[in-house]
Amino acid sequence: MEEQEQKNTEYFVIKAKEQGVQVIGLTRGKDTRFHHTEKLDKGEVLIAQFTDHTSAVKVRGKAIVMTKHGVVDTEE
Ligand code: TRP
Fold first, then answer.
1. Chunked mean pLDDT (size 10), the chain, 76 residues
2. How far apart are CA 39 and CA 9, in angstroms?
3. DSSP classification of residue 50
4. Nearest CA to ligand 1 atom 13
5. Cα of 1 to ligand 1 centre, how many Å?
């Protein structure tokens, strides 16, 4: 597979542990801003990728975040 085809293939999973967890996508490139906010209800799961438009993701609220780097719980 060529390098270009292998870009942004990785998925991450977010599971909401409370109502109204926000998953916020931040733009790729020079200008870093919010471009999308997804609201999850308790128990809802979002499966998403990093893309040409999204280079970072911010999670607000109690959730479990699963990536290839491991599992992170936003709760203290
Ligand atoms: N249209 C967005 C994109 O392709 C959708 C998206 C992908 C997104 N991953 C995300 C939105 C993560 C929020 C968080 O980049």
1. 66 97 97 98 97 96 97 89
2. 23
3. -
4. 25
5. 24
Q: What are phi and psi of 53, to 5 degrees?
A: -100, -20
- For ligand 1, say whether the CB of 19 is within 6 Å of any of its atoms: no
- Is domain 3-73 given the CATH code 2.40.128.630 in the classification? no
Q: Where are the domains of the chain?
A: 3-73
Provide the strand spans (E) within the chain: 11-16, 21-27, 34-40, 45-49, 54-60, 63-67, 70-73
* pLDDT value at residue 5: 60
